[in-house]
Every structure is written in C-alpha cells, then in structure tokens.
Amino acid sequence: MANIHILGAGAVGLSLAFHLSGKHQITILTRKSKKQPFYYQENALKEKIDAKVIEVSSLRPQTKIDTCMIFVKSYQLNDAFKTIQPFLSQHANLIISHNGITDLSTISKVLTSTQSLFFISTSRGALKPAYNEVKQTGIGDTFFGACNDAAKNKVSDVFDSLIAESILPSAIHHNINLLRWQKLMVNIAINPLTALEQIPNGQLLKPQYAIKVMNLLNEACLIANHLGINITLKQALNNAYTVMRQTRLNNSSMAQDIKQGRQTEIGAICGYIVNEAEKLGLNVPHNQALLKTIKQIELV
Fold it and tell me: Which CATH number goes with the domain that contains 78?
C-alpha cells in the first residue's frame, strides 16, 4: 500500500482517486478548505471516496511526499509543480496528466537525478455534476509512461505497484513522445468541436462532422511526421473514433469550460499544432481557425 497525494480535484483526479483508494492511502490536495467529502458515482451507485482532504497551504516544511499525481489544466501545470516541488522526497514519483502538449523540460530540469517523472494518459470519461462529486461516463484505456531517466529505470515497478491492479484497463507505454502525441490527436479531434457545438463526445460520430475531424487530424499528422513522430492519419482517426465511442455520453473538459466561462486548454491543443507549424513554415488553417474561434469565445 502506497501513500499517494493527488493535486487537482477535477473529474480525472477524483475518478482515479476513487479507484486508487481501494489499495492505497489517498490524500487529495485542494487550494481551498472544503469540509465535505468527495463522492464517486458509477451507474446508479454513489460511493464516498476514501481519502484524506487537506489544503495545499497546510503542508509543513517537514512534509515529504513519495508519490504525487498532478491532474490540472495544461496552463496550470507549472504553477502546480512549483507548489508541490519543495515537498517531494528524495526518490519521489511525480505523475502528471493534462490535455494537449506542454514543455516538460521546465519540470524535468528541476527534479533531481533520483526523482522520477511519469505521464499518465487516460480516455476514461468522467464529469463533475457538483464540486465534490464525479460521475463516470465511459471506460477507456489508461497508459503510463516514463519521462526522465530515473522514471525509465523503475517504470515497471511503479506501474505494477500503483496502477496495474487499481486502474483497468491500463498498460505501460514505452514511447512517451508517441503517447503524448496520441493523446493530443484525440484532444484535437474531440475537444474543440464539442466545445463549439456544446455536444457530448458521441455526437461527433455523426457524418456531418467527419470532414472537420479529418481535416484537423490531417494537419496534426503533417506536423507530427515532420517532427519525427510516426502517426498515420488512419491511426489518428481510429484512435479518435474509438474514444468517441467509449466516451460517447461524456462532455469534454473544453465543452464544460466554455459552458462555464472558464479558460480552456486550446493553447496546448490546436495552439500547439499552430506554433509548431509556424516553426516549420507550414500552414494548418483548420487548427488555426479553431484556435482563433475558441480564443474569441474565451474573451466574451
């Protein structure tokens, strides 16, 4: 049994906290004091998440965290890491997850040679009907990969002891760059369109969206291939449509952000493709258009 701290009480963080709590001691770190417990609902069954809940600000200098999972928005990642970094133990495991792609070197260069950085990618569907509740809306694959040398040396041991029996189905992914790009492709296909249309993921299976999805992913594959990431359009489409089916009842995080007037992760999704295209001197008009449109909505 491990002691796992989870920073980020969003849908993914709470969903995985529930599944991990069956075999591990869980502490959920929040920014504000919340006295009510967290609950997880699957079908008609609602259960209390067996976890201690504390404010990040209440951590003491002598606190040492052996395993920390950070589940926040891509634009919140660096600040979240800065908050938790002083408390990481000498051989800590830091596990992060977010939509899109960000530069992880800002984190990896701060970690010591004995502190491990991992990335976890999941297509499990979940939404939060209330602050302290999470509802499962779909079962998908979860992949776990190493991001630095320390993590590569023990990825199998960490996966087996923390993830394998708690989060199903799950597996180790040995190519972290490919894993992050695969997640990005799914994000590109689903998040912006469901946000604009305010529809569940499964609605994108309708023929009327097929050309839009294909154009977005065709541009993403063009950039990926120029950067040495071997993903074909067929593979990207298959992955995206698989996740659409698995999470057909789920509302994407971006759709929920737009509905609630919050900042989205479009900068790390379509914005990442646009930025890389500019460096390469290539045009990606479909991703550019969605980036501009979502940004305009954020300003309203």
Answer: 3.40.50.720
Together in a domain, 149 and 112: yes
The answer to whether residues 215 and 296 touch, using CB atoms and an 8 Å cutoff, is: no
Query: In which domain, by residue range, is 111 found?
Result: 3-174
Computed from CA positions of residues 148, 69, 261, 246, in that sequence, does the dihedral angle turn out positive or negative?
A: positive
> Beta strand 39-42 with 45-48: parallel, antiparallel or unpaired?
antiparallel
Model pLDDT for residues 220-245, shown as the tens digit of each residue: 999 999 999 999 999 999 999 999 99
- Residue 42's alpha-carbon distances to 36, 125, 134, in angstroms, are 20, 11, 9
- 70-110 pLDDT, tens digit per residue, is 999 999 999 999 999 999 999 999 999 999 999 999 999 99
Of 174, 204, 220, which residue is a domain's last? 174
pTM tops 0.85, yes or no: yes
Nearest-angstrom CA–CA distance, 293 and 286: 11
* CATH number of domain containing 295: 1.10.1040.10
- Whether residues 163 and 184 share a domain: the answer is no
> Residue range 154-173: average pLDDT?
97
Q: For 69-135, what is the HEC assignment?
A: EEECCHHHHHHHHHHHHHHEEEEEEEEEECCCCCCCHHHHCCCCCCCEEEEEEECCEEEEEECCEEE
Listing DSSP states for 162-218 in one string gives: IITTTSSSEEE-S-HHHHHHHHHHHHHHHHHHHHHHT--GGGGGSGGGHHHHHHHHH
pLDDT grade, residue 300 (50/70/90)? confident
